[in-house]
Amino acid sequence: MAGSSGFGIGLSAVLTSVVIWGAQLPIAKAAYAVMDPVTLIALRYALAAAFLALLLYWREGMPAFQLGERPWLMLGAGLCGMAGSPLLVFAGLSFTTPEHAVIILALQPSMSALAQWFMRGSRPPAFTLACIVAAFIGVVLVVTGHGAGEDTGKWIGDVLVVAGAACWVCYSLMLAKFPEMSALRFTTVSCGVGTIAILAIALVSILLGTARLPSLPEAVAVTPHLLYLALVSTTAGMVMWNYGSPRIGVLNSILLLNLMPVETYLIRYWQGAHFTGQEWLGTALVIVSLVASNLYQRRLNKAGA
After folding, report:
1. What is the three-class DSSP state of 82?
2. CA-wise closest residue to 286 among 161, 116, 110
3. Regions in the chain scoring below 70 on pLDDT
């Protein structure tokens, strides 16, 4: 009974984090009306890093803030995952649409499988590879849904989001290199490294005039968006994911993560966005392919057990 209760609590935590993340791209896109992406990301991660630091100090004390046994790798993880990934994704979002971005981000499990094949020689099964190919075809259908030559800016945005997703895959793979760290410690320390880099980039951008601090009315207008992105999405979402995922298993967590594009599309539809039949087809192909791959992996694990 206790195990069943733990699974239920973990399931609730993961579902909550997925719902939170499904709304973050439309909310960020709306915030761009009054604040540029670099300034928004800098303020978001500064708030999130401060909250995570307080949480880590409360749970593990001051020694937990050390970079660990591989300091250079930790610096790389922070720069790649906590600075490079959000900067690229949210800069890309300023050019493209939330629905394009969320579909590209949904490919991260497939990108991770390909990365492990390339780095460790662990070739995915043929069925998994077929699902990955189908998912990539689905993404192509989505991003070309309004015509291949529709808007060069959207293509630039989509490419930036792909690069940001790749940075996050690298970050996720680096987590296994720090078995001595708790998930909270790894997240907080790497977030601190990334936040310092983001703040430095924001300062340079403001000095060069490519970014600016918002006026007081703009700051008031964007405060709800910023609080959601910093405290709800980055902090609460990540803590709940790290809490719930080990309790229900990686496969169950990734399966639930496929609900995120569905929520984003529903929000965008409610906001008045219109999608072509090709975009709907591509979205369905991505989600079905990822779910099929997940269920196949589950079957393999059961057979191996």
Report:
1. helix
2. 110
3. 1-5, 146-152, 304-305
What is each CA distance from 179 to 173, 186, 292, in whole angstroms?
A: 12, 10, 30
Q: What is the pTM of this model?
A: 0.85
Query: Cα–Cα distances in Å, from 20 out to 88, 190, 232, 256?
Result: 20, 22, 7, 13
Contact, 119 vs 104, CB < 8 A?
A: no
Which positions ≥6 away from 76 have C-beta within 8 Å?
Answer: 174
Average pLDDT of the chain is 87
Q: What is the rounded distance in angstroms from the CA atom of residue 31 to the CA atom of residue 209?
A: 19
What Å distances lie between residue 282 and 61, 133, 227, 286, CA to CA? 47, 12, 33, 6
Whole-number pLDDT of residue 252: 79
Measure the CA–CA gap between 239 and 245, rounded to whole angstroms: 10
- The residue assigned the tokens 């206790």 is 2
**Dihedral, CA of residue 95, residue 100, residue 106 and residue 108, to nearest 10:** -40
